[in-house]
TrEMBL record:
Signal sequence coordinates: none
Protein name: Cupin type-2 domain-containing protein
Domain of life: Bacteria
InterPro entries linked: Cupin_2 (IPR013096), RmlC-like_jellyroll (IPR014710), RmlC_Cupin_sf (IPR011051)
Domain Cupin type-2: 64-112
One Pfam family cited in the UniProt record for this chain: Cupin_2
Length: 123
């Protein structure tokens, strides 16, 4: 890690915090001068309503996500019924109010630059 007053360089192989899901993966977080950047490893079988809802305590995910999919696939269902599927190489913006699930048998790895501060964080 290299830091100065205005510059921070970190790596996800040494996260500032690792947040395990109920099962099926974890979310790693880096504090970049007060902005939290996340890297989620969502294993096959992961579903927000099973793996994060018990931690978040809300009926659907209330976090805004802005990210990039590195591997795997994820289907997102908005509370209003709209659906989208995210594939490797996709850049995405997801509003609060959704559920999501991994599709297939490959771990879905995503970088998240959105409101990641309290995502999957036990209080």
């Amino acid at each position: 890690m290299a830091t100065t007053a205005t510059t921070v360089v970190k790596r996800f192989d040494v996260p500032d915090e690792s947040r395990p899901f109920m099962a099926h993966g974890r979310a790693d977080a880096l504090d970049m001068n007060g902005h939290i950047v996340g890297c989620g490893s969502f294993e096959p079988g992961w579903r927000w309503s099973d793996d994060v809802k018990p931690i978040a305590g809300t009926d659907s995910c209330q976090v805004s996500h802005l990210g990039y999919c590195l591997s795997g696939q994820m289907r997102v269902r908005m509370d209003d019924g709209r659906e989208m599927t995210i594939h490797p190489g996709d850049v995405f913006a997801i509003a609060p109010g959704h559920d999501a699930e991994v599709l297939g048998d490959e771990t879905c790895t995503m970088l998240d630059f959105g409101e990641f501060g309290d995502y999957a964080k036990r209080h």
